[in-house]
Amino acid sequence: MENLYNICWYLLAQTQVAGAGNGNVPAEAAGEAAKEAPQGGFFDTMGFMFPVLMAVMLVYFLMTAKPKNKAQAKTSEILANLKKNDQVVTAGGILGTVVNYRSDAEFVTLRIDDSSNSRMQVLANSIVRVVSDEDAKKDS
Prior knowledge:
With 140 residues, the chain is of the alpha+beta class. It has 4 helices and 5 strands, in the order αααβββββα. The protein has a 5-stranded antiparallel β-sheet. β3 (107-113) and β4 form a beta hairpin. 4% of the residues are buried. The model is unreliable at 14-20 (pLDDT under 50).
């Protein structure tokens, strides 16, 4: 634990010239020590790395924002074109037929089973896709 403590202080401490600013050391010796001592410290390196890190974060944000907006636009388009008797698939994998839907409503009523007339209310945002007649024929 003491080693970790020493390493942390070493990284955070600014390098100082030994004896510089001390009245006991002649100015010439302090000048020579300043030339030999490494300049800068941990925070000088961070000053260079900060803009690079910010650029990487910006690129990451831009690359993830576009697909997210694209998916959200697709969902909005599906909900805008949704009408009664459309067959839909929900995010949970439930296949049903739309019975009741209003564009301003949060929920959609789906008929799950035709024989027993089972109905279920789901969130409108959970509808992933509308199954067309061609898709239904392919699956059969």
